[in-house]
Amino acid sequence: MKLSKTTLNIIILIFAALISYFFGSKEKEKSITPATQTQTTVQTQPTPQTTTSSPKTTVITSSAKETDYDAVMAEDNLGQNATAPVHYYMLALSWSPSFCENQKQKNGGYVPQRLSYQCAGNQNFGWVIHGLWPQNKNARSVNDQPRYCQGDLAPLSPQLLEKYLPESPGMTLLQGQWEKHGACAFNNAEEYFAKQKALFQSLTLPHSDMRKNELFRWMRKNNPQLDRVYLGASKNELYICYDKSWQPMDCPQSH
């Protein structure tokens, strides 16, 4: 069977078109495959984690919410003295800037965790409550003073302790003062904390550090209830004494 020349030309053109389409598709597939694989790789590759190293700092934490603030009587160098009677009270106030600086020097420039709220934050504390200490008038040394009168007590609730920040700047401080001192004269911790806070707030205190005699003069001048009352002091602390009716009285000359 003979094909006309026109028919033959059509067949050749169709055949050429099929060949061109076939090889063109292959080339297109080759040209897009690498890009597709690259895109897949980018999508499945894990995102790199950026790590930043903080500069060395003396600040450990500024949080007041400590998790381990219990006082352990067995670890206390002075231990327990549950038999000494209480004759008067001593309110101990601490000048926080000097106290914190001394602590940093003792610890290689670092602030211990238990003092982080007081010494590592931005609170800028001045005078703060160290504690309210029941005292024995016949004591010859600190060992003779009432201490841990109810033994090793359970930790108080964080909610209770937080009520008495920042006048007493630290949950470890509050817990320790209650167990060591407050329990020797008060029925419960809240009564103890409320009393020391009330005494603290009844005072007018300077906003700067002073030498001992200058501090005493300033306190007597600005607190009429302390006029002619002998105060006590140590390196970073001021002591004000009260009788059992909570009237200011002379502190022992040893302070």
UniProtKB/TrEMBL annotation:
GO terms for molecular function: ribonuclease T2 activity; RNA binding. The chain crosses the membrane at residues 6-24. Belongs to the RNase T2 family. It comes from the Bacteria. Pfam families: Ribonuclease_T2. Keywords: Membrane, Transmembrane, Transmembrane helix. GO terms for biological process: RNA catabolic process. The keyword tRNA processing does not apply. The keyword Transmembrane applies. Residues 33-59 are annotated as: Disordered. This is Ribonuclease. Gene3D superfamilies: Ribonuclease T2-like (3.90.730.10).
